[in-house]
Design brief:
The chain is α/β, with parallel strands linked by helices. The chain is about 45% helix and about 20% strand.
Length: about 270
């Protein structure tokens, strides 16, 4: 009789234990879900591949998820002003992030330079030493830049061209495209003979095998046009934990290594 009465008691104990374990598991799951967040990161076209690599790295080390939206800096900033639900703007300049701060749309204390890009003149079939002034030997329709109105790399290239010996008429006729990645593609496809590119765009193309370039085909211009790229967090994302994690991890050495790998220098103030 004793063993008969003990059997239900054991089942009850086991049942309570299972329920207790299930409650703990559900609590842990809810804790993880409450910590997980999503963020929309708008990035300058030249930083697209790097941002994607950073997102993959951070997603593998957290429960957060990131959507990368790439385009020319000017157009992304304009979309934010028009109401686009981006949480972070990683621009290819300092001016647009500051404008968003001035408009009251971004957190003033969040603005920081995250990378220093490098502008170069890629001229694969140059018959002599590559120089900006030497471009006047080409038809201006054979020379390409990113549109200075939207793209900071194009703006930097345009400033250098205007300090050169080229005439205003020659400059007026050069080819302008949406962003610096497109410039790299046009030169690689020989649709133009020369173009002002970003080192990061060239490295990205070389990594995929879509671009081949010899070192003597590019004149790097970091001594004349250093590209400081700044980010800013939108006010709408003030309490977004995925955004906070993204910004914090830009100081992590593993993330900094990804940035350097893709042809950027990392500002000293980040570490």
């Amino acid at each position: 009789m004793a063993s008969y009465r003990l059997a239900p008691l054991k089942r009850n104990v086991m049942g309570r234990t299972l329920l207790h374990g299930l409650a703990i598991a559900l609590a842990l799951l809810n804790s993880v879900n409450s910590w997980a967040a999503d963020a929309r990161i708008a990035v300058a076209a030249n930083f697209r591949e790097t941002a994607a690599a950073i997102a993959q790295h951070l997603e593998s080390h957290s429960a957060h998820r990131y959507e990368i939206i790439a385009g020319s800096t000017g157009k992304l900033a304009g979309q934010i002003v028009s109401g686009a639900p981006f949480d972070v703007l990683m621009a290819a300049d300092e001016r647009r992030p500051q404008q968003l701060v001035d408009l009251g749309m971004a957190l003033p204390d969040s603005r920081v330079i995250y990378a220093l890009g490098e502008l170069g003149l890629w001229w694969p079939d140059a018959t002599s030493h590559i120089a900006i002034d030497a471009l006047q030997a080409l038809d201006p329709r054979e020379v390409c830049i990113a549109n200075p109105a939207f793209a900071p790399y194009g703006e930097a290239a345009w400033a250098l061209l205007n300090r050169s010996s080229m005439s205003p008429e020659w400059l007026r006729r050069i080819v302008r495209v949406d962003n610096v990645n497109l410039v790299t593609g046009l030169v690689a496809q020989k649709q133009v003979k020369a173009g002002f590119i970003a080192r990061s765009s060239l490295i990205a193309g070389q990594r995929t095998g879509s671009i081949t370039a010899q070192p003597n085909e590019v004149l790097w211009l970091s001594d004349q046009a250093d590209i400081a790229q700044a980010l800013v967090v939108m006010k709408r994302a003030r309490d977004n934990e995925a955004v906070q994690y993204w910004v914090e991890q830009l100081r992590d050495e593993a993330v900094r290594a990804l940035i350097r790998r893709d042809g950027y220098r990392v500002p000293r103030e980040q570490g």
